[in-house]
Amino acid sequence: MSINIRVAQREDCPRLMELVHELALFEKAPEEVTVSLQEFEDAGFGPKPIWKAFVAEAEGQIVGFAVYYVRYSTWKGCRLYLEDLIVTEQYRGKGVGKLLFNVLIAEAKELGFSGMVWQVLDWNEPAINFYKKYEASMEAGWLNASLSKEQFLNY
Question: Annotated active-site positions, please?
Answer without folding.
Answer: 131
